[in-house]
Amino acid sequence: ALLGPPSPARLRSRGNSGPQACVPGSASIDPASLARAPGSAPTSPRSHRWRRRRSAAAALGISDAAAMRAEDDALRSAMAEVVDMSGADFGILWKGSAASTTSMLCPHASSLAQSTLRSGAEDRHLLASMYVARSAAVTFPPGVGLPGTVWVGRQPLYFSDIVSAAAHDGTPVAFIRSADAERCDVRSALFMPFGRGVLE
Known about the structure:
Largest sheet: 5 strands, antiparallel
Helix content: 40-55%
Number of strands: 5
Structural class: alpha+beta
Distance between the termini: 72 Å
Strand content: 5-15%
């Protein structure tokens, strides 16, 4: 941009008798205003620091979200592998909302064994799917139910016949889903600490 001479009115207000050239960088011009868009506010070192901190916080949030997704994918993959290798029909991962054992346990993910997808295993697949679907509506406070007990004590629990054990007070706490387990023909069950949650 080219700057022309000041107007006569501006010169008279300054008390000047003759025309003067308007030199860039002189006291009458703010050099910073030449680099700013019209109507924009002047910048300061403080605003620059704030922008850097905001950018750093945004980058940190993105990296945290990516790390959580990677951890979740790893847990799901590990759960599916454990279910298939153990000969189980299904697995349910109960996970708290935080790493603390004071948070509620919710069904975070589930996995049906590959064996239930084979021809001739349609009944097993249907029953396992029904039990997983019914469990999706259940949450456990710490110390409540079998997942909540393992979540607090961090010790695994195994039952060769969980429906029979629940009927004869053979479980350390009430098996809240015993009716669903009997209806879906769930027999042996293992509850064990798994990552930041409990694998059933």
